[in-house]
Write a structure and sequence with these properties.
- The complex is a heterodimer of chains A (141) and B (90).
- Chain A has 141 residues and is mainly alpha-helical.
- Helix content of chain A is 60%, strand content 5%.
- Chain A contains 4 helices and 2 strands; from the N terminus they run H-H-E-E-H-H.
- Chain B has helices spanning 21-33, 52-76, and strands at residues 10-12, 17-19, 37-41, 45-46, 87-89.
- The radius of gyration of chain B is 15 Å and the shape is globular.
- Chain B starts with 9 loop residues before the first strand and ends with a strand.
- The model of chain B has no long low-confidence stretch (mean pLDDT 88).
- Classes of the chains: A mainly alpha (141), B alpha+beta (90).
- Chains A and B meet through helix 1, helix 2, strand 1, strand 2 and helix 4 of A and strand 2, helix 1, strand 3, strand 4 and helix 2 of B.
- Strand 1 (40-43) of chain A pairs parallel with strand 3 of chain B.
């Protein structure tokens, strides 16, 4: 119990929700604090009899996901805190990116679509110019 | 936490966590054998629900969970992460 009680007292984040208040995804931070204090954190992959029950419906799942999203995005404020190990920061970064990658992907789709429209217009100019050269008139304008 | 200091280890369970006896003793064995370890996360396998949605997730987890946790543990070793539940802490 000692390492946990000694190192894992968590503060309330300053400011208001969604980014302030209680640290929702406390587990990542507790692991990072233990690592910072020199303790090891293991994943007992050979332990078999450990089970959990999932949210039974898509709506319940979405509710949990919303909570996790808020909790993981709070880590933006801690990821650069002094003293954490690089791998603790990587855990937080992966948690953040699991929710940030979707909006980034959406932006990527929007920007590539815009670029495609822009290039299509460029090609249209070229083709009308070519037609002008070949036919002596511009059928588009 | 107020009375926790009287005990050597604790195992944290969520309302929806389940654990067999062998998992408990394995956790304690690992902790006793490795005094530098403060926390061991056990890999929780999703079970028990019967809705199609939950069944799909449970099926997926039963396929990838073992490989995922073994690989993750191989690469991270003592730098693993805590997922909040069903773990033990020194």
């Amino acid at each position: 119990m000692k390492p946990f009680t000694q190192h894992c007292g968590l503060p309330k984040l300053p400011g208001s929700e969604p980014f302030g208040g209680e640290i929702l995804s406390h587990d990542f931070v507790e692991a990072a604090l233990l690592r910072k204090a020199g303790w090891e954190v293991w994943l007992g992959y050979e332990i078999k009899e450990s089970y959990e029950e999932l949210p039974p419906t898509l709506i319940d799942y979405a509710k949990r996901d919303r909570r996790w999203c808020q909790g993981n995005l709070q880590h933006v404020r801690m990821i650069l805190a002094r003293g954490f190990s690089g791998l603790s920061r990587l855990h937080m970064l992966m948690g953040i990116m699991s929710y940030l990658s979707s909006p980034l992907w959406l932006l990527f789709l929007l920007f590539t679509a815009l670029r495609l429209m822009y290039r299509a217009r460029q090609f249209q100019c070229i083709s009308s110019a070519t037609i002008f050269f070949l036919c002596g008139r511009n059928p588009i304008r | 936490m107020r009375w926790g200091g009287r005990y050597r280890y604790m195992i944290v369970l969520d309302a929806d966590s389940l654990m067999g006896g062998s998992a408990l003793t394995q956790l304690v064995d690992l902790m006793e054998a490795h005094p530098g370890v403060a926390l061991i996360q056990s890999p929780p396998l999703p079970v028990n629900h019967k809705s199609l949605f939950a069944r799909i997730l449970q099926f997926g987890s039963s396929l990838y969970s073992d490989v995922f946790t073994a690989g993750s543990s191989f690469w991270l070793m003592s730098d693993s992460n805590y997922w909040g539940i069903t773990r033990s802490s020194a």
